[in-house]
Specification:
Chloramphenicol Acetyltransferase, two-stranded antiparallel ribbon, globular
Length: about 280
């Protein structure tokens, strides 16, 4: 379409809808009204051992967050009919599985310095934890320094408008990027900035458990909130022992992910996370 106007996202044709999806999409108007939450507690020991084994391959620190992002992408790959966006009453499948990793910056208690941004990695299901970690480092450093350009335009411009006009600007950006599927640098967002789903690590803030909400303009399928690893009593071979456990909360868009989809995806995520050696080694 030219240098200044492009398709925002590379979609395939609309997929066939079940009766429930048609009813669901007609019932809720926006993503945050259709949220459904699932929480799972996982055995973190295999994941930690796997990351320690892979660590010598890179100078970048490998974390639970990197593995969780990979497992989320693998779950989407196993059930691709969930990797969609609701547009004009239809579900449009994405052609790639892209995960937006959220990064917080600023100083706690110092008003005006706190900020939140993210970096979307493409085709995460075809990456490994090493490539994921290395792909996030440059942007994470920029975000920490306040130099990130992912949402710089909209952040800088929106502050000069009253609250009412801010809402109109955000809704206008949503309509252009998602409703019309058009993108231009003048919008202040990077092209397809939010990906298929978001992942936030509240564990990096030493928070054990938190339920995140889907940012409506992202039109993400879900957001996963990864907590901190804690030592807890567990039963192993009929005996009580100390184990390392991790809680992850998933908030999904119920118009796309129903109970059956959620059950399959969570089982796939858990199998991937607790048996990471079974993941194909892409990097």
């Amino acid at each position: 379409m030219g240098k200044w106007l492009k398709r925002n996202i590379d979609f395939g044709p609309p997929i066939r809808l079940s009766r429930w999806r048609k009813i669901s999409m007609a019932s809720w108007a926006v993503t945050h009204d259709s949220s459904v939450v699932a929480v799972i507690e996982l055995d973190a020991e295999p994941a930690l051992a796997y990351l320690a084994k892979r660590q010598p391959e890179t100078a970048t620190k490998l974390t639970i967050t990197h593995l969780a992002g990979l497992c989320l992408a693998r779950a989407f790959a196993k059930y691709p009919d969930t990797n969609c966006m609701v547009r004009r009453g239809k579900l449009y499948p994405r052609k790639t599985i892209d995960i937006c990793f959220l990064v917080a910056s600023g100083e706690a208690g110092k008003h005006g310095t706190e900020d939140l941004s993210g970096h979307t990695l493409r085709e995460v299901d075809r990456l490994g934890v090493v490539k994921i970690a290395e792909g996030l480092i440059p942007t994470a450093k920029k975000i920490k320094r306040g130099e990130d350009s992912t949402f710089r335009g909209i952040k800088q411009s929106i502050g000069s408008f009253p609250a009412f006009f801010r809402r109109l600007l955000v809704k206008a950006a949503d309509l252009i990027m998602n409703g019309l599927n058009l993108w231009s640098p003048v919008l202040g967002f990077q092209q397809d900035a939010f990906g298929s789903a978001m992942l936030t690590s509240v564990g990096s803030l030493d928070i054990e458990f938190a339920i995140a909400r889907i940012f409506p303009t992202s039109r993400n399928v879900m957001i996963a909130s990864v907590g901190a690893v804690r030592e807890k009593p567990v039963v192993k071979n009929g005996q009580v022992a100390v184990g390392k456990r991790l809680t992850i909360a998933f908030t999904g868009d119920h118009r796309i992910v129903d109970g059956l989809h959620a059950a399959h995806m969570l089982k796939e995520f858990q199998a991937c996370f607790e048996k990471p050696e079974s993941i194909p080694v892409f990097s």
